[in-house]
Design a protein that fits this description.
Elements: H1 3-8, E1 12-14, H2 19-35, H3 43-64, E2 67-69, H4 74-80, H5 90-108, H6 116-140
Helix pairs in contact: 2-3, 2-6, 3-5, 3-6, 4-5
């Protein structure tokens, strides 16, 4: 299935991005990556912040590809779209989806469920994704990267 098929199914909407939008999304990711390693944060918060950085990267890639996720299952669609945009391998998408679920539980239902190892994994994966997305946009949609 392609992103165009997703749009036909109503999972995505056509979207015209701009260099400013891409810069803003990647800027939020950069801020969150920096904040995710701040001393004194709980593992729950570190994971949540790193996950948000990854989500902003996925959203930037999707925007550069000419789409945005529809409201329903927005996070899920943005993360899953990484296989179609930047070609992220399925195993890493599964990890991101697991982090998404864990963030939901840790953010809304129960504290203390994220281990330090999981938080570290989230930070490292978000950093990797940040670099991958920027390189992909530079290669495929250079007009969307501000000088």
């Amino acid at each position: 299935m392609t992103l165009e098929h997703w749009a036909v199914n109503g999972w995505l909407k056509a979207h015209s991005s701009s260099p400013g939008e891409i810069s803003d999304l990647l800027g939020v990711a950069d801020r969150d990556l920096k904040d995710s390693v701040s001393p004194g944060l709980s593992s729950d918060w570190r994971l949540a912040i790193a996950y948000n950085a990854a989500l902003q990267c996925a959203t930037a890639a999707l925007a550069a590809a000419g789409f945005r996720a529809s409201r329903e299952a927005h996070h899920y669609r943005a993360i899953q779209s990484l296989s179609h945009t930047v070609g992220l391998e399925p195993g890493k998408i599964l990890v991101l989806d697991r982090l998404r679920k864990k963030r939901n539980i840790g953010g809304y239902e129960r504290a203390g469920i994220v281990t330090e190892k999981e938080a570290d994994e989230a930070v490292e994966l978000a950093k990797e994704l940040r670099h991958l997305v920027e390189a992909w946009i530079l290669e495929r949609h250079a007009e969307l990267i501000e000088d």
